[in-house]
Amino acid sequence: MPARHSAPALIAYATALLTRVGLDADKASVVAEILTEGDLLGHTTHGLALLAPYLRELEKGAMTKSGEPLVVADFPAALTWDGRRLPGPWLVVRALDHALTRAKTHGTGTVVIRRSHHIACLAAYLKRVTDQGFMVLLSCSDPAVASVAPHGGRTAVYTPNPLAAAWPTAGDPVILDVSMSITTNALTNRLTREQRLYPGWWAIDAEGHPTDDPAVLTAQPPGALLPMGGLDHGHKGYAFALLVEALTGALAGHGRSDPNEGWGASVFVQVLAPALFGGADDFLRQTEHLAATCRATPPRPGVERVRLPGENGLRRRADQLAQGVDLYPGILVALAPWAEKLGVRALSEASVT
Fold this sequence. Notes:
Blueprint: H1 7-20, H2 25-40, H3 51-59, E1 70-75, E2 78-82, H4 88-106, E3 108-116, H5 127-130, E4 135-141, E5 163-167, E6 174-178, H6 185-193, E7 203-204, E8 210-211, E9 224-225, H7 230-252, E10 265-272, H8 280-296, H9 311-323, H10 331-342
Parallel strand pairs: 2-3
Antiparallel strand pairs: 1-2, 3-10, 4-5, 4-10, 5-6, 7-8, 7-9
Helix pairs in contact: 1-2, 2-4
């Protein structure tokens, strides 16, 4: 049976590695928490699997280690930052705090961030907002990367451009985190390393032919990921991807038309206060009614029951908080050289913490 590690032990380990490489202590603890939360929810490509790449970015100076974002614009319900390539998880958590404060007064608070570094798993941020009775929208794009072809095209133009949202019900919140491509760059890279195929035609080669081979994205000339909806309905994912680009790079005023600065993100954060719209009680009455109706829907053949978005992740999170986190194989192996270099006691894949 695979070894499991407690979430606090993983957070402490990640925090130690990040601080030893020079990241401010307050930033290191937030980044460690968000990466671990990604694994708790089951997003194994966007959790602690990102820690070694983050450490490399910090070591070479591509991720900023200290300081604050620069304020580009500041209005009662809208705030724009230049993130100065600071760690994305820390910037997003700070942005959520500002958006929550403004939403309590104005009904909504929106923060957009240009020149953030990568922000990891979007779903990892959402529960901290819904636990306070608010609704949240979160999205990002990476203006330095192009890996997804627009519907009908054969050349990559934009990134998977995930859109996440969450809102409370009378029970667990509804949580969604959906890429506007069929799959992500991180999963594509993992499958390529492991010499495995996609389970379907999720990409196209350089000639535009559909394929299940993730290696086409690193071929010369490269292929591209298909939009969400694939060959038949990719126009939907393509349209939503353009929406994400407008919310992130366009609103932030910095994106694909600007010089490439390396791996990073343009970010959109919005918090909504139900109490300042139709009322908090009526909001919950509506969301719970629909949630209960969906759960009670008779399942089609072969389906055990109808679930809500995020339900599996929350159940997995509760189990792993109680039983320990089941890390994807190889994550701790990739971190061991960093632990040795930075003088941090390594965690073993063979021992439970």
